[in-house]
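Exercise 7. Predict the joint structure of the components listed below.
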Amino acid sequence: ETGVTQSPTHLIKTRGQQVTLRCSSQSGHNTVSWYQQALGQGPQFIFQYYREEENGRGNFPPRFSGLQFPNYSSELNVNALELDDSALYLCASSSGQREQYFGPGTRLTVT
Amino acid sequence: GESVGLHLPTLSVQEGDNSIINCAYSNSASDYFIWYKQESGKGPQFIIDIRSNMDKRQGQRVTVLLNKTVKHLSLQIAATQPGDSAVYFCAENGDTGRRALTFGSGTRLQVQP
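Solution:
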């Protein structure tokens, strides 16, 4: 176990709805990264937060947004859900930019 | 754009044999590489990493080799066990502007008893 937790485990939403996913980082880690993993593919980087500020972003539209809190936990928000947003959303925590430890993920299904 | 890819989508080995999983990367600026193991329904689990100033690093039953000349990375697993069955990803962290890990598509390792 990495000490990184995510909630909820599974979620089903309808197209056009909004969703918030949560992540608690490993103790002592100040950096949280979010990834989207479609079925059968490798994780794709969404964005990273360091000390409550966005610190890099991948090729995802603005309807993907996030927050990091003073205790370094983080949220991923997705607005106007589309069918292609169905995926496993992974949170990874690290101390700095290198070794990242992943949580178990949240499985999002958009119908 | 830059990408990390894998040669073989599925690798089947006998229990007790050694496994070798290969990965090609295209970003010559990459300076850090990681291997992750992902079991069904779980998040990726860190296995071993290597920096670009090294060409070999060993862990417990695992060895990572880096060949920067041909941009190739491999993971060797000694005495493969049924518990090693999973999908293995290589990832790189070379674009410091993005500070992100770029993952390949993965290789499924199947260990036959």
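Discussion. Chain B touches chain A through 25 residues (CB under 8 Å).
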